[in-house]
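Task 17 of the worksheet. Students: predict the tertiary structure of the chain below and write it out as structure tokens. Keep your answer in the requested format; marks are given for formatting as well as content.
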Amino acid sequence: MTTPEPDGGARPSVRQLAFEFSPQPRYGDDDFLLAPSNAAANALIQAWPAWPDPVLALVGAPGAGKSHLAAIWARRVHAVLVPPDAVSAEADLGDFYGRHILLEDAAGVSDEKGLFHLFNLVQESRATMLMTAQTEPESWGVRLPDLRSRLRRAPIARIEPPTDDLVRAVLVKLFDDRQLAVEANVIDYIALRIDRSLDAARAIVAALDAEGLARGRAIGRGLAADVIARLASDEEV
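Model answer:
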């Protein structure tokens, strides 16, 4: 919704402005924070094209960095992004012949025959495919025997839960993305009191940014304590 201006123009609403200025994830090569939890997965991704199989599964919890690492690979190999709902046995996959493919949220593909055909296309055209998922293919509940066999052959690059040091580094990066200056002792305070996940880091930074703007305060330990307590209370409801 917009508010009319006296001259007949339109002014974006506060809600629109907040949306427009929300920082977007930065998926540049230099923005990927290498750590023990993702080093093995990164090494396997970077080993392309010398993968042990044309299809590789990149597995990790939500917010672990799968999309970032996959985006780096996709840029490098000029891969085409195929959404899960585009994979169908009735779909014309010919446009993907010979193209390297990034299939995000591969567990969300509902048409097993379509996914099997995509595997065949990749192999026949001597291309490669990177699949991302939160869990390993064995847990997807695939019923088609031929597809199960293909998924078992795909090597798995696992991103493990982040270390404390990585959570701190991500907090620093997220605050920097929003151009927020936060002291190191406050970063440490936050890192020790949130779940050890990158999604939790993103949630607390967004909440602190909003609360700091609402109160007109810099982000310090007091504000951090209030927001952490409020988020914990919301989760209990």
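Marker's comment: The two ends are 31 Å apart (CA to CA). DSSP finds nine helices and seven strands in the chain.
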